[in-house]
Amino acid sequence: MNNSIKLLYYKFLKNICIGKYQNYCKTQQNLLEQELVPEYINYKTNRNTGIIYRSKTNSDEIDILLKFQTLNKIKEIELKQKIKQGKKVKVCFIVTYISKIAFESIYREMEKSNLFEPFIVFYDAQENYFNDFDYEWNEHQNGFQILKDRGYKIYNGFDVHRNFIPLYEFKPDIVFTSDINMDKLHNHLSNIYLNTNYLTCYLNYSINTANNYPYHYNNRGVATGWKMFVESRTDYTELMKYSKYCGVNTVLTGYPKLDSYAKPLEDCKIPEKINNENPIVIYAPHFSIALEQEHRNWATFQYYYEYFLSLVKKHPNINFVFKPHPELRHRLHYLQIMTMDEFDKYVEEWNSLPNGLYVFDGEYIDLFRKSDLLIQDSGSFIGEWLSTGKPCMFLINYKRKFRTYLNGFSILGRKILDKYYLCHNQEEIDKYFKMIMFDKQDPMKEERIKLKDELFINIGCAGKKIVEYLTDILTN
Known about the structure:
- By secondary structure, the chain is an alpha/beta fold.
- The chain has 2 domains: 3-255 and 460-475, Rossmann fold; 261-455, 3-Layer(aba) Sandwich (Rossmann fold), CATH 3.40.50.2000.
- It is 45% helix and 12% strand.
- It has helices at residues 3-28, 32-35, 41-55, 60-84, 104-111, 134-149, 182-185, 213-217, 220-223, 233-242, 301-314, 328-334, 340-352, 365-370, 380-386, 402-406, 411-417, 426-437, 445-455, 462-475; strands spanning 89-95, 116-122, 154-156, 174-177, 199-203, 227-230, 250-252, 280-284, 319-322, 356-358, 373-376, 392-395, 421-423.
- The protein has a 7-stranded parallel β-sheet with strand order 3-2-1-4-5-6-7. A 6-stranded parallel β-sheet has the order 10-9-8-11-12-13, sandwiched between helices.
- It is globular and about 65 Å long.
- The protein starts with a helix and ends with a helix.
């Protein structure tokens, strides 16, 4: 497509979009005050900012957004030409954490398709430590092998000398990312959205439960991509109604990570060490210790890590899984709470117990389904655990005021937390642990199941829906 045609197409698209922006914004501003209770004041402010921003159609930011979307349309047309020539679409799934994989069902659907050729490139988020810590490089190699053993077609994003291999060398047509700030966190991938070679799709690695409105809904990096696949009705509404980018590339599909809930329970695979008749409890601590964003200081590991290790020793007939956030080890080291060696020794002691297991894998839904209780203080697992229908004990950072603590969660996050058992201290942990594991009581079970049906769609087939959507776009 020559430059004069590209320019005409851009001007045409811009004029249409400006008209839509003006009409759309007028209908939204009056709705805002009616929807949110006073406790959501931060959310309300961020929403209103988005609506006002969109009404300023001469904004340079909107102009930039339209240029990106025009570029995406041109790349889409060129990809269709390639397909008409009988060539397959090469789809690259970028993995930066092995514990943050959300695309398995999409990948498997593409494997069955005659249109797509899926593969993984493993760009480890810990790359800055590779030259200083052999441990980090060995962990990267171990993660690479785990993904390879699962049958994925996978390429290492680093050569044997630990040097970065540029993405363009893998020649993708479409790139899936699950890191909302990929271009900022990984210097080598700074042009992930602004390029002329491939289309980008964004799929969140977790369900949005944090009150971080600009990060999730007003993120330019994601808005300038080709497609953003959204996991819940709540997120779709926020993006379409209130984000400053109008949800311009948003598609409501459901969350592919939850597709594993649809397969027969007997097909779920868990590590042999805990694959016995004993109940399973997962302890999943978050990394958010002393964050600059005070309202997201959720983590409680620094208070309870010895206590939970004592629980493993105290109850030999219960299997305990330690599933920390991948950033926790570095956060503890950075804050001088634990050295990396001390954290590793803690993991080794947990693992050495006959009923203890450390898990860092990202495909953990099978483990969720076979477990009986989740104990956590993490944001992402709030939503992913809900579909089990099983109880969750959520650990509250007791040094935070409870009202300000809840400000750290989104509308969806608060709805789910309302159906979990909140523990503010060790006495409450003991109380709820006894109630659930020994007394076999779970008074909020039916409320959680009802809430799950209200929030999520396409559980079991979201990956298939995404592949069908892309197939329809590229072949029509």
